Amino acid sequence: MGYTPSAVAQSLVTRQTRTIGLVVTSISDPFVDRIVDGVEGLATEAGYSVFLCSSHADPDREMEIVETFHRRRVDGVIVVASRVGRLYGDHLERLRVPIVLVNNQADSDYVYSVSADDEAGARLAVRHLVELGHQRVGYIGCGLRPPSNRRRQAGWQAELEQAGITVDPDWSTVPDTMDDIKNGRLGLGPLLDAGVTAVFCYNDRTAVGVLLAARERDIHVPGELSVVGFDNIAPSWYVAPALTTVHQPRLKMGNRAMQILFDLLAERPVADALLPCRLVVRESTSAPIENE
Known about the structure:
The protein has 292 residues and is of the alpha/beta class.
């Protein structure tokens, strides 16, 4: 007879809207696509709809979006790369909506979170370079994401020290820009001046910036310089040379965040999740010239 059930009326009875709010830094960020797929896949199977908003890495906008989702009566919220972090704890009592953070970038812990093991992933990257024979491995970081940058830089340093290599402070740099590719382009020069033969980058976009800067300087990769990224986003396998990188299980991160949200809605006990990374070796790394 053409009757359509009213979701609003149903929510008044069930006290659930069967909707989830998802906040990402930017829909153009290649890091978030698989996380969104992971969230949406489980949500759809369970009969939930997902509302997507972008925070543009602005903490104030992020909190405004969460407040808006609350007014829209979503059942739960997932935030990717949160800049607010622990401040949500102060609002939970008032908002009364479960919130899960993925790849939290606030300078604090949050009770419901999902992330990849940044430090262990960084160690995988540096171990690969050391095993190839590199003794001077540089690091280009990211000032926009301090917590994960610290963990990846710590992994870089710890792996070099475990290999018996004394770390030169000039081997690491964190350029003062808001753009990952610019970080790579600006960061390469100081590291070359310090004599590095390989560079581990905060993420794949930074590594792309390094590849561009190396091309401008007529530096052959990997013959004269080895480069490793982090994330394993889609562009990493079709740049030239194809990028050796650390794979973050982004689909699983989205899945796990959604599962934690389901557990919170069902009032089941939950714990934060730290997922392992793995190394993906492609064409941008080789033994240093003096070792060949």
